[in-house]
Write a structure and sequence with these properties.
The complex is a heterodimer of chains A (about 525) and B (about 325). In chain A, about 30% of the residues lie in helices and about 20% in strands. Chain A contains 17 helices and 21 strands. Chain A folds into three domains: about 140 residues, Periplasmic binding protein-like II (D-Maltodextrin-Binding Protein, domain 2, 3-Layer(aba) Sandwich), CATH 3.40.190; about 110 residues, Dipeptide-binding Protein, Domain 1 (Dipeptide-binding Protein, domain 1, Alpha-Beta Complex); about 220 residues, Dipeptide-binding Protein, domain 3. Chain B is globular and about 85 Å long. Chain B has twelve helices and no strands. Classes of the chains: A alpha+beta (about 525), B mainly alpha (about 325). Chains A and B meet through helix 1, helix 8 and helix 15 of A and helix 2, helix 3, helix 5, helix 7 and helix 8 of B.
Chain lengths: ~525, ~325
Amino acid sequence: MMERRHFLKTGAALGVAAGAGGLSAPALSQGAAARTLRFVPQANLANFDPIWGTQFVVRNASMLVWDTLYGIDNTFTPRRQMVESEEVSADGRTWTFRLREGLRFHDGEPVRAADCVASLNRWAVRDGMGQMIRAIQEELVAVDDRTFRWRLRQPYPKMLLALGKNNTPIAFMMPERIARTDPFQQIAEFVGSGPMRFNRGEWVPGARATWSRFDQYVPRQEAPNWLSGGKRMLVDRVEWIIQPDPATAAAALQQGEVDWWETPLNDLLPTFRRNRNIRIEVADPLGNVGCLRFNHLHAPFNNPRIRQAVAMIVNQPDMMRAVIGDDSLWKQMNGFFTPETPNYTEAGGEILSRPRDGAAARRLLQEAGYNGEPVTMLVAQDIAWLAQMGQVANAALRSVGMNVDFVATDWGTVGARRASREPRERGGWNIFFTWFAGADCTNPASYLGLRAHGDGAWFGWPTDPGIEAGRDKWFAAANAAEEKAACEEINRAACQSLPFVPTGFFRVNQAFRSNVTGVVPGPLPWFWGVAKS
Amino acid sequence: MWAYIVRRVLATIPVMAVVALFVFSLLYIAPGDPAAVIAGDQATPEDVERIRASLGLDRPYLVRFADWVWDILNGDLGVSIFTNLPVSHMIAQRIEPTLSLCVLTLILAVSIAVPMGVVAAWKQGTVVDRAVMGFAVLGFSVPVFVVGYLLAYVFALELDWLPVQGYTPFNQGFFPWLENLILPAVALGGVYIALIARITRATMLEVLSQDYIRTARAKGVGQRGILFLHALKNAAVPIVTVVGIGLALLIGGAVVTESVFAIPGLGRLTVDAILRRDYPVIQGVVLLFSFVYVLVNLLIDLLYTLFDPRIRY
């Protein structure tokens, strides 16, 4: 069979392009190709400021460029990363951090405590845990070039988790001159101290982004474990190739034009399974939590009993089979926290676990006084998971006599309209669908969907003092048992007030060429330790 | 002639002004909010509000429009809301792949479609004619993305002759450039070939029935000379018109083709910008497309004089 690289040259030999001397084709040596990892990310890298834009794709790319003070491992324990040591005062109010020696930014400058102070100041404005720390902060100062101190008015036991968590925005360390940028403005330089340098000149947003290995990076000696340990790059170059079309991405992977695809469509997996050059693995064991979100400000879902009626008929198996299909990739969740993680609990979760009961839901709707008010359901059609959830929920709500106004639109419109606090007849909404990364739902710290402090809460603005009280207890918890008890309290309250209805827990696969080794499942793609033969 | 060209160029100014007003207004009233997209799914409403304010999206319509027009008059298309890169830079990054794709498609389409149409007219009513017209119907009916997938499946996946996706700049070698563009150009060219072939055939049939063709035959001019020297030249005006009008078809088709073959061109830039509500990029690209379209129409009008000496401006 004639192979691709010979096709045109054969044509030339036959006289198709005779005399085209001087037109040359560059060729990558096998060695160079093996040192370049070509990756198809979940989405386009449209901006590159992990504090300004908190999309997961930005966070994932930022991991290459910017390092963190701490990083969680696969037991959710924060480990030292840029930090050599820390000291907390006896009253728990003063934290003193000392940086490792020899850390350098990509411009050759040493990483100083002042850089970390500026970076933390910028991060803390945008991050939920950072905002909590800011609220009790007395001072955050550089003591010397390698030491900085954070003095608080009261103890904050989750300090190391805040600095090492993987939820957006991550506390990335940047040079002071960059970190002084307003957190609501984009940075203009992409200089970090992480294992790879960003090739800004090669960045074509929507098409390609590339990184080259930073030779002066000083990895830790420990083995890599998620965000912690030695981030040793085994390739010289990482290329992100944005693929808007899944069929094209699949073909490119099969042909070896790309090495690793972060989120292949489930429909395409059978094709990959037949190809011995491709391996398929679960991308993130922490998976995703589907969400049917209510607007708690307006009728009918300002009435908790009507929310409960909906929870009684949302059938997670129906939802998940529509969304993900493969039964091995989803689980029924009878609680709000990520299944198979320490804080998962089914306390008070009977409304989610008991058999679906349309008749009971209909009765409850009547008792609650529902009299056919329209329910404006925003369903993004350009994101397959959300479109499927919407279809299933639409049928379920109609089956108990709810008057659904199904608004089929795109995610851009949902994103804007969900921010409206107006009633539905003035451009507001009653239900929309989304999903949370399971990594964000392992504890209350980053679980925005489970906040219930009214106006300050996430879209839908639920109010439930029970949830908030449980959250406060979790932050104050001194050990895992206390944390679990707090989560049980939150779960019980949430199953009553229903800030949202979980539509199921699901995982997705990733696919990569079999000559790629060292791919470790996790809440984001880790590039360190990945090699190509 | 020169006075005509100057008049036509000047006439583009009000056209572009209307396009600018229309595009800006349409985007203003369209639902969606780039601030919400930037902030991400986990952002609080307050975060979204602050980002909206920092982008200036909370300013009144007229203020925003006036600022944008003033910037354009100063040669500045603005800065992308998302990438923070100048729109002109983003367009410059993307123009080569789209231009390459369109030019190659145009060359391919014209060099295939015109002879096809001529032959079909010459062999009217025969199997050849029916085959050409059958192909034309097929070309019109099968969507570009279906043709694209089929071509990629056969020539890339099965035969391994050509790459599935991507684009190699021309300065990295002619063959790598061509390798990446053959399949997209063929996929995109299908509709175009069908359109031009049909018009060529119809126009040729009309011309071939003219008295001067009969006179030429009577004078002993050969079939080839009649077809290509006498008939085709006289049929050229409608064909050139269709080639020009078809450019809009080509630009529209490029959007799909660039997505199917992962070519980093203006089409994909436009789609990405629309999905994210990146207003400055959408506005910049639409203005550029409009300008190109107006320019191409002017060129077509000027080309008429080459083919028909009776036309004078």
